[in-house]
Design goal:
Layout: H1 2-23, H2 29-49, H3 55-78, H4 84-103
Pfam families: Multi_Drug_Res
Family: Belongs to the drug/metabolite transporter (DMT) superfamily. Small multidrug resistance (SMR) (TC 2.A.7.1) family. Gdx/SugE subfamily.
Subcellular location: Cell membrane
Length: 105
Amino acid sequence: MSWLILFAAGLFEIGWAVGLKYTEGFTRPWPTLATILSMTVSLALLGLALRTLPLGTAYAVWTGIGTIGTVVLGILLFGESSDAIRLACISLIVAGIVGLKLVTP
């Protein structure tokens, strides 16, 4: 169950990372509110997952999910680069997350 909670925390991290772009420096109230809400939920879920998962593993997976999702949405929403080297580097992050999952009880 902790892994599912951690995955959800990572999804909310993607939400607040992308939300920061839409706040335009916290000048737009609704995107700012949604971003702050997503930050709060993400951290609360991470805290719940840390009850049973090791800190280093949970934090690495949480930030990895956030990084991967943010890069993908950056490509899809903001026209950021999707060249082969960038995607290969992202695949290394995916491999790291899978590896951590496999070696963590």
